[in-house]
Design goal:
mainly alpha; single chain
Length: 269
């Protein structure tokens, strides 16, 4: 009797083992995720999470490398950043050191920005069609160029005028004494909004191409945009003065008009 049960038990064990192997597929390692799987959109959830981790690590590595390069040239960077104001002071023993680190990290992020944008593009690549990949492949470098154009416009044209405006309040009884840390906080929060603002024509073009907005819609809401430009400028500017808000709101309105002209005369929508 026991001899008859033994083959049956062995068959059951083999059947359970086969079902287990079929029901629990092996998860590919990170090195086994090929470019073909990424391109044809057949990646699993685990593969997507692995890919996300890889893209984040590469972006952070690029920022670290960029920060190291920026710190190597920190004296030159500080020289150009202090041109609008001249001599600066530090009030605490560690203030200058940590300000140097802050400036190096900010400059490193700008250096690594093309790599970061590329990693974002590569992560979303599997979910896009061939046409969408081509369009996004053109938009990524365009967005980088527009961002740097906004930074350059702010730093070389708007920032010197803003510093001169603020220093104009000084007199014999009231002398300016700028702290190095406070000054660079002001520069960073003054310059970065211009980089984001210069992306406005690109955003309008994308929405127009998708058919979400038309030139008639943009023209209809022109007055509202002028009002909201000053409201947004008041929110993102580091100081409450009207001069700084105007210097941000006016380019924002001009960029909106550029986007309107693109949608109307190039996209013809």
């Amino acid at each position: 009797m026991s001899e008859e049960k033994q083959p049956v038990d062995e068959e059951k064990k083999a059947l359970v083992k086969a079902e287990t192997e079929v029901g629990a597929p092996e998860v590919p390692a990170e090195s086994e995720i090929s470019e073909e799987e990424m391109d044809d959109g057949s990646m699993t959830l685990i593969a997507h999470l692995t890919e996300l981790r890889s893209r984040i690590i590469k972006s952070l590595a690029a920022i670290v490398i960029g920060s190291c390069i920026a710190y190597f040239f920190i004296d030159d960077i500080m020289h150009y950043l202090t041109l609008p104001v001249g001599k600066l002071y530090y009030m605490q023993p560690s203030e200058a050191f940590f300000t140097y680190l802050k400036v190096a990290i900010a400059a490193g992020f700008l250096i690594a920005l093309p790599v970061v944008f590329y990693q974002i593009w590569r992560f979303f690549l599997p979910a896009l069609t061939a046409k969408e990949r081509m369009v996004l492949g053109l938009l990524v470098p365009t967005s980088v160029v527009l961002f740097f154009a906004g930074i350059a416009f702010s730093f070389f044209l708007v920032l010197p005028a803003a510093v001169e405006f603020f220093m104009g309040f000084g007199n014999d009884e009231l002398q300016s004494l700028f702290s190095v840390n406070k000054y660079f906080d002001f520069v960073i929060w003054f310059v970065l909004p211009f980089g984001v603002t210069f992306e406005l024509p690109l955003i309008i073009t994308i929405l127009g191409k998708m058919g979400i907005i038309t030139s008639a819609f943009l023209k209809k809401h022109m007055r509202l945009v002028i009002f909201l430009s000053f409201v947004l400028a008041a929110i993102i500017t580091p100081t409450p003065d009207v001069f700084t808000q105007t210097m941000i709101a006016v380019p924002m309105m001009l960029l909106y008009i550029v986007g309107y002209l693109i949608v109307r005369y190039i996209l013809r929508r």
